[in-house]
UniProtKB/TrEMBL annotation:
GO MF annotation, one: transmembrane transporter activity
Name of the protein in question: MFS transporter
SUPFAM superfamilies for this protein: MFS general substrate transporter
Listed PROSITE patterns: MFS (PS50850)
One Pfam entry name: MFS_1
Organism this protein belongs to: Bradyrhizobium centrolobii
Transmembrane segments: 26-48, 60-80, 87-106, 112-136, 148-171, 183-204, 225-244, 264-283, 290-309, 315-339, 351-372, 378-397
């Protein structure tokens, strides 16, 4: 086992002294950080439409936000590998503060490209926030890691409430600059998250540990890792793919914007609500079975969507999709924890997130075009193809693991 130095208390293991405090702080920071993503998703296209030199570029800020998530995962992992996760959190949350300040300035100056820069910084912040789940596992005893991971993800339930309310109550405060106050409020909440994370106590790698570990080329060939990455990719890709298309599909079906907004709100709650129990389910039944259940929920969401185009069909689709994402993504994250040694965790986890978020950009760019060209049913039918691929990867990973356990 590698030797760890604990920030603030080198003589005590984090699982014994700081586990509860760290998990609580990470869950609070996760809830506060939800304002960042919600503000950009809710306002990015509207502001883009107001500021872009061409209407065709209206949704570019949201796409740049997703690109920022993918582009910053590997650098964040490198910083964590050398200086520890706490340093990464401080940098990422600082980017969140800058995203809000620059976003507000962009609105005041009517600068589209400055707003795109703010969106990229917001993506950087979002990428760091999603690493909170792995940090929670780092500071927990092995048998409690799935629960710690899911407890932090449960903070997203509160994010689903904080973010929309922030937009609703601040969008018109600074007339005539629509959303200028919203981005200032987002910066303030990111600053509050910075203060919460400042008191965190996480394991720090020693100087020798930072240079140790197997080459990534060896780690990524593990069937278990391949299965975890594929399932994480498919879970996140389909969630983003269908969630992005659903509101526009509801508009095409002459359903109200209010119905679409409410459906998305329940979708976010369904994404994070199960996290109160996902960790216990993983501990009891294993990560692979939880992932399989998540893929089944995602498939069910597409089936319901194909049954009709009433409000109830869309809402049920979005709720099932959220639950499927939770089981699939949290379960896949728990599988990743089984594929690396302690000294390898930062590199392996950041690589996993880079692949997941990088692939997610495909869904972000494609969903709207496919919906406009081929319709909602075609989008739903297409979702079954990656699901089949994920199930196959999960079966192979699980069967290889059973064989290795039998052999030993």
């Amino acid at each position: 086992m590698s030797q760890l130095v604990i920030q603030g208390a080198a003589d005590a293991p984090p699982a014994l002294r700081f586990e509860r405090s760290n998990v609580v702080r990470l869950a609070i920071a996760q809830a506060l950080a939800g304002a960042n993503s919600t503000v950009i998703y809710a306002t990015g296209a509207v502001i883009g439409d107001m500021l872009a030199p061409s209407k065709a570029l209206a949704t570019l800020p949201i796409s740049i936000f997703v690109v920022g998530m993918a582009a910053c995962t590997l650098p964040a992992g490198a910083v964590a590998q050398r200086y520890g996760r706490r340093a990464t959190f401080m940098i990422g949350t600082g980017c969140g503060v800058l995203a809000g300040l620059i976003g507000s300035l962009a609105v005041l100056q009517a600068s589209f490209w400055l707003f795109c820069a703010a969106a990229f910084l917001g993506g950087t912040y979002a990428a760091v926030v999603l690493s909170f789940r792995f940090a929670a596992a780092d500071c927990a005893a092995p048998e409690r890691r799935p629960r710690a991971l899911s407890a932090v993800m449960a903070g997203g339930v509160f994010a689903g409430v904080i973010g929309p309310q922030l937009v609703t109550y601040t969008m018109d405060l600074w007339q005539p600059y629509l959303f200028a106050a919203t981005y200032l409020a987002q910066a303030a909440i990111a600053a509050l998250s910075f203060l919460v994370l400042a008191g965190i106590r996480l394991p720090m790698p020693t100087d020798t540990e930072a240079d140790r570990g197997r080459p990534l080329s060896v780690i990524v060939r593990q069937p278990r890792f391949i299965g975890a990455v594929v399932c994480g990719v498919v879970s996140y890709l389909l969630m983003n793919f269908l969630m992005t298309a659903a509101p526009l599909a509801m508009k095409f079906c002459n359903l109200s914007q209010q119905s679409a907004n409410l459906g998305l709100q329940w979708h976010v709650i369904a994404m994070y609500g199960p996290s109160f129990w996902t960790g216990r389910l993983i501990t009891r039944f294993g990560a692979s079975r939880v992932v399989a259940t998540g893929l089944l929920f995602t498939a069910a969401s597409s089936v319901v969507g194909l049954l009709g185009i009433e409000v109830a069909h869309f809402w049920t689709t979005l709720i099932l999709l959220g639950v499927g994402w939770n089981f699939g993504f949290v379960g896949a994250s728990a599988m990743v924890l089984e594929c690396h040694r302690p000294e390898e965790k930062a590199r392996v986890q950041s690589l996993n997130d880079f692949i997941v978020f990088g692939t997610m950009t495909v869904g972000s760019f494609l969903s709207g075009g496919l919906l406009s060209a081929y319709g909602w049913d075609a989008v739903l039918w297409l979702s079954f193809l990656p699901l089949v691929f994920a199930v196959a990867a999960l079966v192979v990973a699980s069967s290889r693991r059973r064989r290795s356990e039998v052999a030993t």
